[in-house]
Amino acid sequence: MGLIEMKYANMHGYTDIAPFEIVKVISEKTIEVRAMSATLDPNWKPNIIPGGFSGHCVNQNTQIYTYASDENAPVIRCRLRKDGYFHSAHGKHVLAEKPRKFYDYNF
């Protein structure tokens, strides 16, 4: 799937992921993105068991979020690097068909 078909450029920061939407394709090597708001489903609760530093979340891969565009978020520019990923001042962005938020409770 090409760059034009992708709608999201989720930012991967170590183990956490933040949703960003592509607002403009400048070229094959440059895009503009904007952070999205992500709200954790109030019915989802982390299941923490003893272990690790103070506890281990065993159900973190089942997190459920709802996403919305944030018109007030600043638009930032990302450029394609030789590693095959787009990078901005915020970090590495991975193109995707859906927005994704992930919070690592075990880090």
Task: Name its key features.
0% helix, mainly beta, 107 residues, two-stranded antiparallel sheet
Explain this structure:
- With 107 residues, this protein is mainly β.
- It has one domain.
- 0% of the residues lie in helices and 49% in strands.
- It has no helices and 10 strands.
- It has strands at residues 8-13, 16-18, 20-27, 30-40, 48-49, 56-57, 65-69, 75-80, 86-88, 91-96.
- Strands 1, 2, 3, 4, 7, 8, 9 and 10 form an 8-stranded antiparallel sheet that branches.
- Strand 1 (8-13) and strand 2 form a beta hairpin.
- The protein is elongated, with a radius of gyration of 16 Å.
- The N and C termini lie far apart (33 Å).
Write the layout of secondary structure elements.
Blueprint: E1 8-13, E2 16-18, E3 20-27, E4 30-40, E5 48-49, E6 56-57, E7 65-69, E8 75-80, E9 86-88, E10 91-96
Antiparallel strand pairs: 1-2, 1-10, 3-4, 4-7, 4-8, 5-6, 8-9, 9-10
